[in-house]
Amino acid sequence: MKKAIIFDLNGVFIISPRLSDRFNIDFGVTVDDFMTVLQEIMNKVRLSNAVSIYSLWKPYLDRWQINFTEEEFLDYWFKVEKENLELTDLAAKLKQKGYKLIILSNNFNERAKYYSENFKFLSSLFEAVYYSWQTGYIKPDIRAFELILKNHGLKPEDCLYFDDSEKNVDLATSIGIESYIFDANSIEILRLLL
Questions:
Q1: CB burial readout 32-43, b (16+ within 10 A) else e
Q2: Does residue 177 have a pLDDT over 90?
Q3: Together in a domain, 41 and 92
Q4: How many domains does the chain have?
Q5: Which residue range(s) make up the domain with 10?
Q6: How far, in Å, CA of 104 to CA of 118, rounded?
């Protein structure tokens, strides 16, 4: 019997339009150019002791002639992100059934702070929220999963895992966690647990 459900956060509980598409539409930055910069920066800020994300984006914003202050940039990025209400409602029911609910997210300090202040379901629904910038482990690092198992006294077979990244799902599956790409079918899988 499953005891815990581990979820990714972005693209699962928090949904939004792609930032690359928004930069393309609003500022004419090509998706390829944006994604190259995004990957470079995210690899740096998702770890402990990272510098501010704005300091890394500022040279590119200047190059693209986008005059955002730090506050404007973070607001532009974060304020379009919304709670997946269907999933939070279902998660509340799963919690009532006794499942441990855990978030495992590759994320950075500024965004985690915004989430803490604006998405109260994170503190009310989840036993724990693990951000890579706090743990130092960026998925698909196996240690990110091992940390959760150890901290919560779980075995891989005790858990279900949902993520919108195939490489993260593949890694979790490889260590014995029943794992799924998060999509419309995932809601049905979760409803079967009720």
A1: eebeebbeebbe
A2: yes
A3: no
A4: 2
A5: 4-15+83-191
A6: 18
